[in-house]
Amino acid sequence: MKKSGKNTYKDFYFPLFWKSWLIFCLVYSFMLFQFWWGNHDWEPLIYGIHWSDGLFEARYSQHLFTVIFLNGQILPTLYIIISLALLALLCLLSADYLCLPRDEKKYLLFILLLGCSPYTFVLFHYVFITVPMIMWGSVIILLLKLSEGLHSLKKWLLSILGFAFILGGYPPNISFLTTIFCGRKIITYQSRKQTLKQIIFDGTFLGSALALGFVINRLIIYILTAYLGLNFDMYNMRTSSLFEMVQKIPQELLNAFIDIIESHQDLGTYYTFFIVTICIGSFTKIIKDSPNKVAAVIGVCGLILASRVAYLVSANAWYAKFRIGYWAFFGLSAVALSILLNAKQQIVKNLIFGLSLLTLFYFIRTDFEIEKTVSYKFNLERIYHKHIEERFFDYPKFDINGSYATLNFGYPDFLSHVCLNGCQNFNNEILDNTILPADLGYVLFWDEVTSPVSLKFAVWGKSFWKVTDPILKNDWKNDTETNSQDINMWLYLQSKTYPSKESIYIDDKYILMNLDKSFFNQNKGLLSRELEKYK
Amino acid sequence: MTHIQKNNLIFYLKPFLWSFGISGIVYSFMLFQFWWGNHDWEHIKKSMNLLSGLYEIRFSQHLPTVLFLDGHILPIIVISLSLALIILQAILMAKYLRVPENFKSYMIFILFIVLNPYLFIFFYYVYIALPLSFWGTCVVALLYITEKSENKKYWLLGGIGFFLALGSYPPNMALAFTLFMAKRCLNYVNRQENLKEIIKKGMMFLSQIACAYVGFSLVRKYLIQADLVNTGMYNLAIRSPQEIANHLPTDILESVTQFFHPYTFLDTTYCILLAIIFITAISIAYCKASNKWIYVALILILCVVSRYAFILSARSDMATVRMEYWGRLGVYAFALSILLRQSKQWIKNLILLWTIITLSLFIKTDFEIQKVQYLGFTAGRKHQSRIQESILRHPTFELKPKYISYTFGAIPFRERYYQDIYHTPEMISYAIYHIFGIVSNLFWEERITPTAIEVGIEGRNLWHIGINEDKWKDKAYWTDNPENMKNIRFWLYNEAKYNSVYVDDKYIIMVLDLQSFYKNRELLTLKLDK
Is the domain of B93 the same as that of B139? Predict the structure, then answer.
């Protein structure tokens, strides 16, 4: 039954929001009252987040909400409570934007299927960007809603500014923006609320605003590069040229189907079944119900392509494919669900309802499995870190107040120790190592009152890296012949792999760890050559 | 129960339940984890009994723990009960200060008190979370009940009640004094009492307090005579009347400046937000007061009595933050009760805005404190495990209660996890073990504690605690093996470094803080030479 007026918010939206939020808190309750984090979070946990922390990758507006709501702090339980509230809001706004009929059951199913999807865990992996990612998603919907209806210059300018901020928040959100916009246009066309001409005009309005928002984004990046001397050579900064984007279109269309059909090992084959079913079901319905079949097919292709925008624009999307893919799948799922939940025939309604409940049951079960697995994997790594650190204190030369350069050869593959949905050996942003290659030395002393780490060395991609960090002491000086001799002796004659006692070398300047036999053997020469430079 | 009484009960139940739910969410991380403070180790394992507080003349402190929980410190329940009692305390304060009886006003008042990050002072030591909240509530309840009538029965109830409250945690009497004066100020401004009536009520109140103090003094005398009290404790040192008089000007000054004392997590923003309501409230009341001089005098007395604990205590420097809580709470409650009575819409809107900003800040700070305490506790336990391992691996170490241990310093891990310029060495940021219980804490999970006598060394002091009293008095136990002395001295001056441990057949010596070690190691050698 359609409700109208002020009462809609009080009688419909607010109760739905509270119910969804409460259910999310129950589903994610284990995570709510534990505290684990990802490999980018060690420093923000102690030092907090400043709004400018995203500048190094041109994310000039990313941390705005964290700074405003939480004073830049990452706070256990609270950040998840806020994130789940934002997630409930995002799902609710999406349902409304996609013209889902105002039926409480349908809205609740829509929200829960999106929010309880195991893919959601990708948002919680790096705790420092959980709130930004979800918040900017909600801003997208609000901006899209704003730009609906009568177009005006004011709306257009506001949209441009909004898009500039969204692109500076979390750029892969763009896939969500384009997908859900496309989805709405398909729905309004299918339900004959808009003509093709109107849709094209809407598309032009939005597209131009987005393009100009992108221009502003690039301008800001240029200013940051030119005047602040920031280096934007990171993988997530490189964009494809227009020609490259056009060239990639056929491949991305194919990749979209492959990604939909391919089993996500960590999400389970049932998730694939879910996404395939709703996509096929909704695409079929779109084509069947549309007045113009050709336009409908083009619309569906457009929808799929819209979900690949982030991959089209980014030159290195494969680096973070799983995380980028979330927003594409969120958008596609939202569109597909809003179409299917609008079915008219009773038998179809019943089938969808039954399948939805089954899917929800599976999703929630998987959610708890992921929470359990992430928890014990996190604890597993922390115990490992603790064991290594304990060894250091046994070394007579080790001084907690000293100034060391640290280097670890390799790091265990903890992912192979955990199992999800019966599968092992995956690497994504739900289950990932808690440290980056160069960070082990720093993380080992994260719990100590003082840290002796002054410089981080890392071996990565067959290269030797020196990693400085403003929070470290940075007063390390290497002066010595003696060190090189001792180190080379350890490297070539004495070293054994952890947990052997000879797996760790400590003198007054270096902490070296042999944590992986083959990695060590392949790369020990790099350290020797590095030491030659100091002679 | 009459219909009206039932309706009244339902009225108070609604804000109680809502506040309990909200505070349950805000304190949820602490509620579902389990960490504790440096005095809690033995209490977590074993239960409390009524006599547990006698050594510092806290004869009634553990009554609620024994009554409700059979003396046990239980996860979730202790904090939940404490929160429930604090909410009840807030409701009673609201009733006492005649906060307008509507849901919104009560919610603002209650949430201000229960979500205030200052409250974490009392959650650090889990073993006194429940006593402090219980007795604080009793103090407010006593004030409320005893003012109902001048009947002798109420007077006696007040006298006995305040006596028991004094025996729980004496600084909480600051709340009684402050709220009493707050009520007088309110009644004077609203012309419900004149000066004569205020003086009369004051005499009644003071007579109850005097009765309570007489009882307390008698108990104190008896306990000292029975040698049940550690008379050297900082929290038993009281100023003489001469000292009180000498310090009064400073105390009067500090009664005003206390509103601008920032502490760990309670920075200048916190102070400013709360000072705003106090200044606004007294200004509004000033305009309404019939005689401005009397009103100003009453407000001054209100501020001064909020410093009650500091006026009496000779060692207030040792526990400034927690002592200040009670008086400051009463003053802010007074201010809020004035503001919530305002009927003009624009004032109401401003108060609502202030409430939203302040409660948001409170909630954020509450979670920040929980994060710091949790991470600091976890880091501390990890460190403990390492030190314990060093001792256990020593070739001659035996897990028997025979050692004398000396520990230099303790490590405050919590400081690692916050970047705050207002760091105050008070409860929120204390280390997880106390300087004179470190080894027994290290072996907390073992069946046997290897120490007979533990000595913590900090601030040029040796803090003794005798676990086995007979050993403490046995002279022969203190006779040292000369060989040990040589080894100990060699270790102290040649090998000892941060986190290092010395173990022989009689001694365990640990260095947990290098500064403390370098400053105090000769204290140890002098002690051993004796």
Answer: yes
- Three-class SS state of B402: coil
Min Cα distance B392 → chain A (Å) is 14
Q: Do A76 and B367 touch (CB under 8 A)?
A: yes
Which pLDDT value is given to residue B340? 95
Contact B61, B131 (CB under 8 A): yes
Q: How many CB pairs under 8 A join A and B?
A: 72
Using a CB-CB cut-off of 8 Å, the residues of chain A touching B498 are: 399-401
B411 to chain A: which residues are within 8 Å by CB?
A: 449
CB distance B497–A47 less than 8 Å?
A: no
Peptide bond into A437 cis (omega under 30): no
Question: Is A276 a residue whose pLDDT tops 80?
Answer: yes
User: Which tokens sit at B106?
Assistant: 């009560």
- Owning domain of residue B423: 370-529
CB atoms B370 and A76 under 8 Å: yes
pLDDT of residue A419: 66
The residue ranges of chain B whose pLDDT is under 50 are 467-468
- Global pTM value: 0.86
Best mutation target, A34, A83, A442, A447, to test chain B (most B CBs within 10 A)? A447
State the Cα angle at A521 between A515 and A524, rounded to 5°: 85
Residue A427, pLDDT above cutoff 60: no
Tell whether B357 is covered by a domain.
Answer: no
Q: How far apart are CA A442 and CA B359, in angstroms?
A: 36
The per-residue pLDDT for A147 is 83
Q: What would the mean pLDDT of A504-526 be, rounded to a whole number?
A: 91
Contact of B368 with chain A, judged by CB distance below 8 Å, is answered with yes
Please judge whether A448 and B383 are an interchain contact, meaning their C-beta atoms are less than 8 angstroms apart: yes
The answer as to whether B364 is a domain residue is no
- The answer to whether the CB of B218 falls within 8 A of the CB of B39 is no
If one counts every other C-beta atom within 10 angstroms of the C-beta of residue B222, the result is 12
Whether the CB of A32 is below 8 Å from some CB of chain B: the reply is: yes
Measured N-to-C along each axis, helices A153-167 and A196-228 cross at an angle, to the nearest 10 degrees, of 50
Cβ–Cβ contact A46 with B under 8 A = yes
Residue A487's alpha-carbon distances to A399, A484, A534, in angstroms, are 18, 5, 13
**DSSP conformation class of A51:** G
- Interface contact B498, partner A, CB < 8 A: yes
Reading the block at residue A461, the tokens are: 């991609």
How far apart CA B102 and CA A387 sit, in angstroms, is 58
A377-407 pLDDT, tens digit per residue, is 899 899 999 989 988 988 878 888 888 999 9
In a domain, B349, yes or no: no
Same domain, B140 and B226: yes
CA distance A75 to chain B (A): 6
Task: Supply B331's token pair.
Answer: 């003053």
B383 and A CB contact within 8 Å: yes
Q: Which of B267, B375, B516, B518 to mutate to test the interface with A (most CBs of A within 10 A)?
A: B375
Domain count, chain B: 2
Lowest model confidence (mean pLDDT) among A45-59, A374-388, A423-437, B14-28: A423-437
Whether A75 and B371 lie within 8 Å, measured CB to CB: yes
Contact B29, B367 (CB under 8 A): yes
Which one-letter DSSP state was computed for residue A1? -
| Structural domain includes residue B348 | no
Q: Do B383 and B294 reside in the same domain of the chain? A: no
Task: Report d(CA B216, CA B218) in Å as an integer.
Answer: 5
Contacts with A224 (C-beta within 8 Å, 6 or more apart), sequence order: A55, A58, A60, A230, A232
Tell me whether residues B382 and A386 touch, CB distance under 8 A. yes
How far is Cα B139 from Cα A230, in angstroms, rounded to an integer? Answer: 61
Percentage of chain A exceeding pLDDT 90: 36
Which residues 262-281 on chain A approach chain B with CB closer than 8 angstroms? none
Angle value at C-alpha A463, between A461 and A465, nearest 5 degrees: 110
